[in-house]
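Entry type: protein chain
Record version: 2
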Amino acid sequence: MKTTTHIRTITLAVAVLGLGMTMAAHAVSPREAAALNKTDVSLTQATQLAEKQEPGKTISVEFDIEKGVPLWEVKVLGKEGVKEYKIDAASGVVLKVEDERTRGELAKLVTGMNLKDLDNAKTSLGQAISTAEKKLNGKAVKVQVEHEHGSIQYDIFVRAGNKTTKLKIDANTELPR
């Protein structure tokens, strides 16, 4: 009985986390793309601003518009768990900080990723973003850091024209997968 309950809990955790990842995998909408073109703060700058708030590494970034304000939602994995920073995409001001410790624990359980893995990656998130933007001749609009096949990889979504393309970059080699 105890094992069945444990399996149901893990299955539910995987389903909830998977649902979040599925919903997050959609490309930037035309409305968001138009707002993104008018912003002064890039995805890379938003990650730097969030990581200055508290030691840690960015594990995802997404552009969004909330109540008419274009912003970057940056999730940072630190020693205390995951925090999401909502950063004004026009000014770079941190508008809100949300503690996502529970979601961070679920991510660790499902993916096996931890802060040590991110610290040991040979390629930084900034380098991976630069590589993707150059290769696809566009602007990064979303990033997800994943732990696959025993190593870290960056899933970078780059918008060029009216198309958003996902490029996977290995954190150890800086090569696209």
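Comment: The two ends are 42 Å apart (CA to CA).
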